[in-house]
Amino acid sequence: MQTVLPREEAVEAVISKVLGSQEACDRLNEVFYEHLENYQEINDDGDRHFAEVLLQAYKNGDVSALLLELCGGSMFDLLRDAYLIPKKFHGKSGENPVLLTDVEGKLLESKKRGSNSS
Fold this sequence. Notes:
By secondary structure, this protein is an all-alpha fold. It has helices spanning 6-19, 22-42, 47-60, 63-71, 75-81. The protein has a domain at 30-89. It contains 5 helices and no strands. The longest helix is centred in the N-terminal third of the chain and has 21 residues, at 22-42.
């Protein structure tokens, strides 16, 4: 019998939310390409190293290893930098803080109150 860890459930929920939002997909895409561009400028370990990492990641089904080689960040790094997940998943301190604003500091539509204060 396969068990599902709470963290795995949280990851599945995040994936569903990201895929359900065009804005989230756009932000993740943008952050990935920023990481890719910045990392490739400073990292040149050679073609053999890249081939070894690529083939090992394929063999092991390890997306994180591949992303680390391509852009210097893991999937969680990319999601955090795109403001799609908090800095930490539920930990010893309890529930995560809820993101209230986007990367530009604008209040998220889902967090706006229905009050008409002028």
